Amino acid sequence: MVLATSKTYGNYQTSIPKEIRKKFNINRDHVIEWDVQDGKPEINFRKKKT
After folding, report:
1. What span, in angstroms and rounded, lies between the C-alpha atoms of 12 and 6?
2. 42 by DSSP, 3-state: which?
3. Does residue 24 surpass a pLDDT of 80?
4. DSSP character at residue 50
5. Considering the entire predicted model, what is its pTM?
6. Which of the 8 DSSP states describes residue 46?
7. DSSP string, 6-37
8. How far apart are CA 18 and CA 3, in angstroms?
9. How many whole angstroms separate alpha carbon 4 and alpha carbon 2?
């Protein structure tokens, strides 16, 4: 289990913690998809389609 936190900045921006980027091999070519399932947020990462 990886526990990581991030902060919300101006305009509701946030960053992806280093531990999460490493675990999921996230880079600048990824899109973050947000969803809510059973009242809980769900986040998915996918490569940006070109």
Report:
1. 12
2. strand
3. yes
4. -
5. 0.74
6. E
7. ----GGG-----HHHHHHHT--TTEEEEEEEE
8. 11
9. 6
Token pair listed for 49: 């389609």
pLDDT at 8: 95
Give dist(CA 8, CA 13) in Å, integer: 6
Q: Which amino acid is at 41?
A: P
36 φ/ψ angles, rounded to the nearest 5 degrees: -125, 120
Please determine, for residue 22, whether its predicted confidence score (pLDDT) is greater than 80: yes
Please, are residues 47 and 36 in contact by the beta-carbon 8 Å criterion? Answer: no
Largest Cα separation within the chain, whole Å, is 32
